Amino acid sequence: MNSELISIHGKTATITEALETRHSIREYLPQPIPETTLKTIFEKALRTPSWKNSQPWKVHIVSGEKKDLLARNLTKAARESTPQPETNWPESYPSDAKKRMFDLGMKIYGVAGIDRKDKEARDQFMLRNFAFFGAPTAVFITSKFDLNFFVGIDLGCFVQSVLLLAREEGLGTCPQAALGAFPDVVRASLELPKEEKVIMGLSIGYPKPDSDLNRFHTPRESAEDLLRFY
Q1: pLDDT score at 1
Q2: Angle, CA of 97, 79 and 160, to the nearest 5°
Q3: How many angstroms separate the CA atoms of 176 and 143, rounded?
Q4: Pairing of strands 137-143, 172-176
Q5: Confidence class of residue 5 from pLDDT cuts 50, 70 and 90?
Q6: Pair 200, 177: CB distance under 8 Å
Q7: How far is CA 7 from CA 13, 49, 152, in A?
Q8: Residue 23 belongs to what H/E stretch?
Q9: pLDDT one-digit tens code per residue, 84-143
Q10: Which end of the chain is more exposed for a tag (fewer CB within 10 A), N or C?
Q11: Which residues cross the membrane (predicted)?
């Protein structure tokens, strides 16, 4: 799909439109999201299917001063310490996936005007994850479940529901594994029990117009390469 034809603003009329036009947003307006809109999105997302109806998710929606303080604390942790996620981040990928990941990074840095060799600029760009890219609301997904493949599938399904429902409401999102990098910071800020693992998070808000980063629509492999009909 031609990125020049993609509109990420305004509500969508169908699931197909939400799916085809949604992509990660990395620049947001400061405009707050009405609480009624947030409730609509997340209450609908609770209909997401899960293994034997286990519903392994807890959802923490943070806005206002609480969000700003958490952004400062996470950014400080990212500057001063090593990530300590409670989930195992992947360490190896098939060669074709590595190429897609490298190409994506090169394109994003290019759109952001960052030279690939400029480590300081890349680090500063990475730190924007922990300030939620300026979004008015941050969301953290946690679970008390023992983490396994099927719990991961359930959580992924839930996050996808949120992404599409947010797009339906005219909002942009960016799902972020990085927001699970410093679970103790999140746990302390949100007063979570120790057994509640911080899995990941996402930024959500109104996309900033006229943003080159927001117009960047990531490519996909062709259906011919990935689909088989029998």
Answers
A1: 43
A2: 40
A3: 16
A4: unpaired
A5: low
A6: yes
A7: 13, 29, 31
A8: none
A9: 999 989 889 999 999 999 888 888 888 888 888 889 999 899 999 999 999 999 999 999
A10: C
A11: none
Please name the residue that has the structure tokens 């609509």.
Answer: 40
pLDDT at 107: 86
Q: State pLDDT tens for residues 39-53.
A: 999 999 999 999 999
Unique residue bearing structure tokens 């969508």:
12
Interatomic CA distance for residues 41 and 46, integer angstroms: 9
Residues whose CB falls within 8 Å of the CB of residue 230, separated by 6 or more in sequence, listed in order: none
DSSP state letters, 104-172: HHHHHHHHHT--TT-HHHHHHHHHGGGGGGG-SEEEEEEE-SPP-HHHHHHHHHHHHHHHHHHHHTT-E
Check if the beta carbon of residue 144 is closer than 8 Å to that of residue 194.
no
pTM recorded for the entire structure: 0.93
CB 182 within 8 A of CB 81: yes
Q: Which residue(s) pair with 140 in the sheet?
A: 60, 201
Provide the pairing of β-strand 197-205 with 58-63. Answer: unpaired
